[in-house]
TrEMBL record:
CDD domains recorded: TPP_E1_OGDC_like
Keywords: Calcium, Glycolysis, Isopeptide bond, Magnesium, Metal-binding, Mitochondrion, Nucleus, Oxidoreductase, Signal, Thiamine pyrophosphate, Transit peptide, Ubl conjugation
Stated family: Belongs to the alpha-ketoglutarate dehydrogenase family.
Enzyme class (EC, first level): oxidoreductase
Signal peptide: 1-18
Enzyme Commission numbers on file: 1.2.4.2
Domain Transketolase-like pyrimidine-binding: 645-858
GO cellular component: mitochondrion; nucleus; oxoglutarate dehydrogenase complex
Protein name (Swiss-Prot/TrEMBL): 2-oxoglutarate dehydrogenase complex component E1
One Gene Ontology MF term: thiamine pyrophosphate binding
Cofactor(s) needed: thiamine diphosphate; Mg(2+)
Top-rank lineage group of the source organism: Eukaryota
Amino acid sequence: MSQLRLLAGVLRVRCTLGSLWLRGNGSGSTRRCLDSYRRMSSSGSTPVSPAIISSSSYVEEMYYAWLDDHKNVHKSWDTFFRDLQASSPSAEAGEKRPSTLLQGRVGSHSPDTAQKVVEDHLAVHTLIRAYQIRGHHVAQLDPLGILDADLESFIPCDLITSFDKLGFYGLNESDLDRTFQLPPTTFIGGGNSTLPLREIIHRLETSYCGHIGVEFMFINNVQQCQWIRQKFETPGIMKFTNDEKRTLLARLVRSTRFEDFLARKWSSEKRFGLEGCEVLIPALKTIIDTSSAAGIDSVIMGMPHRGRLNVLANVIRKELDQIFCQFDPKLEAADEGSGDVKYHLGMYHERINRWTDKNITLSLMANPSHLEAVDPVVQGKAKAEQFYRGDTQGKKVMSILMHGDAAFAGQGVVYETFHLSELPSYTTHGTIHVVVNNQIGFTTDPRVARSSPYPTDVARVVNAPIFHVNADDPEAVMYVCRVAADWRTTFNKDVVIDLVCYRRFGHNEMDEPMFTQPLMYKQIRRQEQVLKKYSDKLIAEGVGAQQEFEEEIAKYDKICEEAYASSKDEKILHIRHWLDSPWRNFFTSEGEPRSMTCVSTGLEEEVLQHIGQTASSVPVEDFTIHPGVSRILRGREDLVKNRQMDWALGEYMAFGSLLKDGIHVRLSGQDVERGTFSHRHHVLHHQEVDKHTCVPMNHLWTNQALYTVCNSSLSEYGVLGFELGFAMANPSALILWEAQFGDFHNTAQCIIDQFISPGQAKWVRNNGIVLLLPHGMEGMGPEHSSARPERFLQMSKDDPDHFPEFTGDFEVQQLYDSNWIVVNCSTPANYCHVLRRQILLPFRKPLIIFTPKSLLRHPDARSSFDDLTEGTKFRRIVPEEGPASERPDQVKRVIFCTGKVYYDLAKERKQHNLEGDVAVTRLEQISPFPFDLVRAEAEKYANAELVWCQEEHKNMGYYDYVRPRFLTVVANKRPLWYVGRDPAAAPATGNKSTHLNELRRFMDTAFDLSAFLEQNL
């Protein structure tokens, strides 16, 4: 041992001095040594050149000389070697002078032999590191034994898979029984600091090349790497008690027999069963059990359709009869919307975790077949629950995401979601990702489906450890799940479990996989079920008996049969049984349904003044702001003094007044803190102190709610999904996502099409998320002009051919029947009102707002405080209020429009002195269409031509939506003429001159009757 300690010292000196010299710097004793050496070299007190310090032979000679007598070397070397030895984990206090050690070390060996010993130890250290880095490449991960999980049969040359490879390290079989010093970066010794090479290789293969493959050496944190090494390298660490094994078997029974039962009862139905990865159910339950023991009491989950029914039944514990009745084609749907297929539905359940005897809430989010789309939604909901519970470290609420291998590698939203994982305003403090790795995507071989070795490689971008595991080894899976849950608890970072499995049937039960994967499915047909293999193993170990196993099966089969019989009693299919985000007590007030009315959205004068003064000041002392921001604040102050507001102040009034009432406001998106158009400035930055900021909105009231404004990553799909999930958690919060430009929502279209527009119809899911989409033809080119209003209007569900009749509040009833609300406000006051109405309504609907760009600073786009005081409310239309409204019978033309184009029309009308002849009415709420108010306007101007004017091209914008509804309003007795740009493929021209000519042309048309009639007739 003394010789090995001496050798360890030599190794330390060689590695430490050589590497630090090459880096040109060092720390502690090394830096002092190098500095002293440089001084000696420069003063001529030593004849050795600086380069020699990296010479191993020179360092060794120096070290041996020092060990023999400390006076043999310069005092700087003496200091260095003393410090190095004192810092060694294996150093012994008060160790004797090591001259006696040299008698057996140097005296009996030649310098070449000593050099060889050192090199052999370095080689063994390198070998250990090679297994830690690349051992997963040769791990036995595929249950079928026919594929390579990393798509590559090549065996890394630095792994000792056969003893003839020892030559790679300069070793041979005669070295196998030699004892080597272990480095401090391994735990394979199990408390021993030395092991024979043969045992070292055996323990490395056991740790890294069995049924578990660990990817972690890319993590740039030593503590985290050491933690993982200890979990997988410590000999005998993967142990289970007999009770744990019996529990695991019982869970496998439930998972397997559930799928068998469905297959027997509904052999011709799609169910996307879990066969081939039945271990997923005990895996999830192990994660939940371990997390529950660590304090987690709420778990939010998202997953694709494969295995969803099994997870609902055996993890969430959805009533089996409610699942089975979904297969009855004769069951009548409740009058609650379109519903969705059974393997898209979600669930929310509170129960006792029997393993820990603690309460736990489990929520499986509903989601469509658009794979991975639910990922950011789950993260947003988890973040919201953490926020409202004050769980700032994720110690109570956590998320689990399940994935398919092909989707995990192929869908970009996975990458977007990972990049939210450690952002301050988006982190959920660690997500456990479970990949059900079928080793196939529908019919596509993974070799043509991804370029990375593993489907999980995307997780490396955030330094998440990846645990690959053979899904036919249940105990290995359970151990990996425990480690993953412990990792999340310890480090609050993402972790990935790659369940390498297979898909026993095709993509669904009706599909024939032999068409495209004949050899794989020949092997699958021969593959024994994991339940049978594991039960045989436990019986052989004496953990259980065959009779116990059969009784467990019979017990669960009986449960399924009883639930099946009970499901026959169901007559109506209730979607509400599948609600994944219930809002307790929101739809009732003191036990009674909430009134279907909306109170006034106006504000007191004192509130307006107070918010205005805060918005135009810096509420923190000694805070230096940019001169440009100072000018903006002074401008706001002048507006407030004159009882006026621009767009930014209108938004301030809405947010500030809601915060006063305890409503949390969250605004998220790209550059929202300042605002894309430099109008908002909700976060002020100290100009002389880095990272010192002030959010004036959080200084409005003493007991106000928190205002969260956060710049997002450059992501639309992921961030919009996140905010949608955030809005699901709490109806008493205003959650807004702002696109940098309106057309940026294109890359988040999946969230809009699959979750926001049909969410309530499919999943009875109310949601009050607000989308702010800057829109307007400003001559800036095809991009960033149009927010594509036609797309939102096309998906609006109101009937164009039916004039709705309501007995109560027309406005509220119409909103209640809609799937979402689409508005284009033209005044700051109306913008403020619609935001406040969003919270004051007795229900929640998504709100789409086409926000302005040039109007943010337009001198006419101002509102008086009078438009926002008590008794006022959102105006669905703003009718003509000028001279034309005083003589409606003499008006020749009524121009209906929406948004920014109103100001162009108003300017043109004034220039031509037509204010008494032409009325201009603005539609502020476009959908649901304000039938009642439009009819009143049409009847008021009974002798006038009806015109729809828009700045968008004819095949875009609002025209196709409003035209049939106008005709319904007038019972098809009067035509509606179109004025605007001609049809086009691009949203706008890229030529400024062309843009202005187009504007000039349709302005002339709007006010020139002859040209107008010529165009339309």
